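During the no-cost extension, the postdoctoral fellow (Dr. R.K.) reprocessed legacy sequence entries with the updated structure-token encoder. One reprocessed record is reproduced below for audit purposes.
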Amino acid sequence: MRYLVLEASAAAASCALLENQKVLGEFFVNIPQTHSQTLLPMAQGLLDTCGVPAGAVDFFAVTHGPGSFTGLRIAMAAVKGLAMAAEKPCVGVSTLEALARNLAGFAGSAAAVMDARCGQVYAGLFSLEEGEVRRLAEDTALSILELGKLLPGLKKPVFLVGDGAELCYNKLLEEPPPGPPPEEWLRLAPQAGRRRRGRRPCRLAPGGGDGRRGAGACLSAPAPGGAGAFKASGEVKPCQSWSKT
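Re-encoded structure tokens follow.
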């Protein structure tokens, strides 16, 4: 089964073509052009390079956020158009879960974070154990200091991944949360793992209706107890800059 996946939730954009669990190819750009100019030509170039016509793709997938409002709309509209034209299913993947899957094989916990500006981040918390990445709480938006209060309760060490990783790391060293010093348990993910896309494919499930155009999600084990407190921790405060790409 072949998957074409598009990602445009932040300044960079990427696409990947997979066959079962094998990555056939991926393109990545981080240039000052809008995703409407780069995303579809990049996807077409990837398909041409791999010798796979669009009609031979079985599933289309897209990161559905959190992230840039404009970038998400462009990517989701592109995937829906491709899926409708090919009469194939399309599914959605959490941007933060895709980032956390870069750390499969590590032991401890992962905090996938994206810079939401104004001292806030989009964040998702995950456990890392025996090669599995399991969700601990729903994706949410909160201040870096609020996130810092949650991290000491996770299994150590805690790895920060995503484009907000260094921002959070530096802020929490500067203003540490109660408990042991962050230097003892907080880690930056390896640089290669902090890229804007996941290296390992998520498990995908079509959602809604006949599955052809439904928004889906990564399949992950539910957290035992306590996801609600993190989910209810607040919304992004008004800020004009976070939604621009």
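The CA atoms of residues 52 and 193 lie 28 Å apart. The chain has a mean pLDDT of 82. The remaining legacy entries will be reprocessed before the final report is submitted.
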